[in-house]
Design goal:
Shape: elongated
Order of helices and strands: HH
Structural class: mainly alpha
Strand content: under 5%
Helix content: 55-70%
Number of helices: 2
Radius of gyration: 33 Å
Largest sheet: none
Distance between the termini: 70 Å
Mean pLDDT: 79
Low-confidence stretches: none
């Protein structure tokens, strides 16, 4: 029974295999044409320079006490809602 299924699948896939093979052959021919026409010494461009100006990081003012309050609420088991 499995053999019959395999044979039926092969019959159905033959047109697909034929078309796939033709597409592969066509693509390979196009690649060969491009390679014969072009010069491929440089295939990638250099990385562009950074367009961002790096500035020194500044510490926030006045947030330390707020962060400590929130952290103490997180650590406290009796607190259910913050804010």
């Amino acid at each position: 029974m499995q053999r019959e299924v395999d044979v039926a699948e092969q019959r159905l896939l033959k047109p697909f295999d034929y078309k796939f093979g033709k597409n592969v052959t066509k693509m390979l021919q196009e690649i060969n044409d491009h390679v014969s026409k072009g010069a491929f010494k440089k295939v990638a461009e250099s990385k562009p320079s950074a367009s961002v100006v790096v500035r020194p990081e500044e510490q926030p003012i006045g947030l330390e006490s707020t962060i400590e309050k929130v952290w103490s609420c997180i650590v406290d088991k009796d607190v259910g809602i913050i804010g």
